[in-house]
Write a structure and sequence with these properties.
This protein is mostly helical. The chain contains 14 helices and no strands.
Length: 246
């Protein structure tokens, strides 16, 4: 456990670690065996810039995404992340040549429009908004889902109480930590995570570490969530009692 939490965090990390360790023995063991919590944040990026990068990285490997995003930055007059006005002026063939799919081009242009119209807040505005308000605002952008906003809340704003219940790494890390053969459903994980409030971000970070430490040989064996089998419908006409016997 770290003695002095990074000043960049908007919450007391030591208090979070003490709280989680006191209410969850398995998590306490994981905290002791793992490196201290650290959220790698780029404090210079605006919400628009963070989300533009997130769109570029969706559904492809990190290496390929980095190459594509560097090509996009090369299209800006500044050599950095293109401003919303620049994204709107860039033609589709130019962006396709940089490596973006048609869906990502539409998403980036919608992000640019909604940034200029004020739907996507500035960094200063986002600091004053609740997690729920930011999710509601940002998922209105084409191609931006709840998971992407959750990653923004965790890794850009360092919000302390975010639990990404649909994240594969968090779900499999939970299965490893608590000795389960199946992943939890989002509903089950949400219910379990109530004990971690108000530091669900920190607990989620340790679920990622549990997933990484276990390795693919172990985590690939974790099965999908158990599906509830529907009960068979038995018609009354088919039921027999002792009086029905011939």
């Amino acid at each position: 456990m770290i003695s002095e939490p990074p000043s960049s965090l908007p919450f007391d990390l030591n208090a979070a670690m003490r709280h989680l360790s006191s209410i969850d023995d398995r998590l306490a063991e994981l905290i002791r065996a793992t490196a201290p919590f650290r959220a790698e944040m780029d404090a210079t990026q605006s919400p628009y810039e963070s989300l533009l990068e997130a769109i570029a990285y969706q559904s492809i490997s990190g290496k390929a995404a980095a190459t594509i995003f560097n090509r996009i930055k090369a299209l800006s007059a500044s050599g950095g992340i293109p401003a919303p006005e620049e994204i709107l002026k860039l033609r589709k063939p130019t962006l396709r040549k940089a490596g973006l799919s048609g869906a990502k081009i539409l998403a980036m242009k919608d992000l640019a429009r909604k940034t200029l119209s004020g739907v996507v807040p500035s960094h200063e505005e986002s600091l004053k908004m609740s997690d729920e308000e930011l999710v509601q605002r940002l998922v209105s952008v084409r191609g931006i889902g709840v998971w992407t906003v959750e990653m923004f809340l965790i890794f850009r704003l360092a919000r302390p109480d975010v639990l990404p219940v649909h994240d594969l790494g968090v779900k499999k890390g939970w299965s490893v930590t608590y000795g389960k053969k199946h992943m939890p459903t989002p509903k089950q994980l949400f219910a379990f995570g109530e004990r971690w409030r108000p530091y669900r971000t920190v607990a989620s970070w340790y679920m990622w570490r549990a997933f990484e430490r276990a390795g693919y040989a172990v985590t690939n064996k974790i099965r999908p969530p158990k599906s509830k089998r529907p009960k068979p419908i038995i018609k009354k006409s088919n039921l027999r009692t002792h009086r029905d016997k011939p």
